[in-house]
Amino acid sequence: MKLAIAHDFVRHGGAEKVLEQMHALWPTAPVYTLLAEDNPQYLDWDIRSSRLQGWLPPSKYRWPLPFYPGMVDRLPQRIDWDIDLLISSSVSLMKNLRVPAHIPHLCCIYRPAMFAYDRQDEFLAGYPAVFRPLLRNFSAKFRSWDQAGSNNPDLYVACSKYVASKVKEYYRQQAKVVYPPVETAAFCEAGKKTERGDYYLTALRLESYKRAETVVEACTRLKLPLKVAGTGPMRRELENIAGPSVEFLGFVHGTEMPALVAGCRTFLFPSEEDFGIAPVEALAAGRPVIAYGAAGALETVSDGETGIHYPHQSTDALVQAIQREQEVDWDEERLRASAERFSTENFRTRFHQTVESLLADWKPPA
Fold this sequence. Notes:
With 366 residues, this protein is an alpha/beta fold. Helix content is 37%, strand content 16%. It is built from 14 helices and 13 strands. A 7-stranded parallel beta sheet has the order 3-2-1-4-5-6-7, with helices on both faces. A 6-stranded parallel beta sheet has the order 10-9-8-11-12-13, with helices on both faces. Helix 6 (184-193) crosses helix 10 (277-284), helix 7 packs across helix 12 (315-325) and helix 10 (277-284) packs across helix 13. The longest helix is centred in the last third of the chain and has 18 residues, at 344-361. The radius of gyration is 21 Å and the shape is globular. It starts with a strand and ends in a 5-residue tail after the last helix.
């Protein structure tokens, strides 16, 4: 079977964890993208970037936002359509790729574009205030374009039940749920070899909508040791509000994460994420998770059994959750077992079966 993959931006996030497993299933598939960050893991991949590559720093991928719909509309001219299937791996753009009528299109969707729907204010907070009115106007135009392309995929595969509900709400389409892959084995092994430590840990991109400031403020207030793994534009602001018990680690390589997670007391997850890989990694290491109780965390962390949910993205709510967590005697084996349904093996099996099922049942339009 010959296929191609279209992925919005090749970066270092959760979507790329899914992309890596797709590539492992079909290693010769070309990956079409708008912009790709350097990653030694992908040196032997056939990545075909747009003309932005080479003159726009990948870290500034948001800058040409208004131009992306047009670029996606023109992308079919550059794709080699001698394939049996197109997989779009999409947060906001590639789902709208127009595919020839004789080729099926499976969209692996991580969420409908946040800046066009329910979390616009959080997204726009990452831009200078002077540009926000223009971007709001663009968002309305983008939403119309996005809605017009909602029927492009022949099948949506959502990364959680939460995302499937959004696909139904915004696109009026049913989505099959296949949970994304998590490298549970390495974290499980590290957790068994490492004693639970005394520090709290969070790992996330330091952007405003991730709400990392609530974690920094809560641990500063309680004088608890906190390690913050991740980079982003909010780092300096977070350092300014952090107390002496908070340590900023910057970018942590994937090979170093299992030991770091295994050594923590508890993992803190303040974001509203569509799935959230990091909490599952912590559970695989046998470490409890304190998570904002919304979206994907409701499907991965069980309140009172594998972690603690808190109801508001506020410092006060997180402080109360930490105090509650400190009173629980956690069963490490139970935490590890809860993570196994999200393993890479389960993802590969279910995703491959989904592809085979689509190809078996699909018929081109008359």
